[in-house]
Fold this sequence. Notes:
Elements: E1 10-13, H1 30-41, E2 45-49, E3 69-72, E4 77-80, E5 88-89, H2 94-106, E6 110-115, E7 119-122, H3 123-137, H4 147-155, E8 158-160, H5 163-169, E9 175-181, H6 185-198, E10 201-206, E11 210-215, H7 220-231, E12 238-242, E13 256-259, H8 265-270, E14 273-274, H9 282-290
Parallel strand pairs: 1-2, 1-12, 2-3, 7-8, 12-13, 13-14
Antiparallel strand pairs: 3-4, 4-5, 6-7, 6-9, 9-11, 10-11
Helix pairs in contact: 1-9, 2-5, 2-6, 3-4
Amino acid sequence: MPAAERNYDLIAFDLDGTVFDSPTNQVLSERVVRALRAAHEAGAVIAVASGRPTWMLGDELPGAPWLDWAITCNGARVSGVHAVGDDIAAAFPRPLACKVLEAVHEFGGTMSIHTNRSSLMENAQLRSMSKRFAEEAGDEGSYTGNPIENLLATFGGVAVESGVEAFAERTDDQLDKIDCTLPSADAANALEARLEELGGVDAARLGSYELELTAKGASKGEACEALCRRLGIEVSRTVAFGDSGNDLSMAGRELTFVAMGNATDEVKAAADAIADPVTEDGVATWLEANLLA
């Protein structure tokens, strides 16, 4: 379809809370798949824009013929789905990475760290995640038995006792992103203050005591614009969907940022438009109504 007959040339979408209705449900609905496939067939470039690394995108997305690009680790890495190499990367400088990891531990935080090669997930973080997922499900659900083994199988990580020590041992790894859980909001505030002192770090706040950390300038919004430059697409002809704090970097730009109906109040306030909730296939219903002129 000629560009003049569609409103957008690039469509980017978050995963959890946007097309996945829970972190452990890594399946897109049939309606969302149809809408994204139709947009691709109409000539639009399709990109996932997730906080996850590529190996945590689920079983379906990496092989989807309609998916072109993966913006991962909150924009720290941008990769072609069907081509290897030539990534757009914004990893932490290694000396800064070591200082940031040590600061997370200093304020009592637990972490999962995502490098260009793998995810290293602290046992304490895994225990916290399994408890939270079980509480959200209302029962033990799929996390009966050994919850840590189940989480590792679901998310493709490697269990470690200390992310600081594990990263130090992997001297060739580049640190793309840190997910950390602090013991309290005060501890999270103190960590943010320390990161400000260090400089070179962007922090996305998810809830009162969870932070996602990337190198300064690495964000989903910056990655969308970098991908537009790579592909020769006008930023104004991009639409991006999201629901939480790590999607806010896509707001306030020339692109159209659409908040899901289940998004936080802060995200909705920053959005250019609001779609139906994820449970009502909001990405699909919005594209059906707005893709074509």
